[in-house]
Design a protein that fits this description.
Blueprint (H helix, E strand, L loop, with lengths): L2 H27 L11 E6 L2 E6 L5 E5 L2 H18 L4
Antiparallel strand pairs: 1-2, 2-3
Length: 88
């Protein structure tokens, strides 16, 4: 990645981290727990296949033919989103 682009990405990640800390602090002031992150993907049974759907867009991201495989797929997608910083 180009140096200036990487600086921008790092700066935005730092701002996001600070906003999460500030949100937690404000919720602490009023005595409520900070909001938790919602799932980004879900598995939906459609016929013989399980569709892995991105909740925000409603787009199908993949297919599996067993519930166990679908749950592993969802877990992998969630983990990938967390490492990329997509997670709220």
């Amino acid at each position: 990645m180009h140096h200036s682009m990487q600086q921008r990405v790092d700066g935005l990640a730092a701002l996001r981290a600070r906003s999460l800390m500030a949100t937690a602090e404000f919720y602490g002031l009023i005595g409520l727990p900070a909001p938790t992150a919602r799932p980004l993907y879900q598995a939906i049974a459609k016929g013989k296949a399980w569709h892995i759907v991105e909740i925000a867009t409603g787009k199908t991201k993949g297919f599996c033919f067993s519930h166990q495989a679908a749950m592993r797929f969802v877990d992998a997608m969630e983990a990938g989103a967390a490492t990329k910083g997509v997670r709220q």
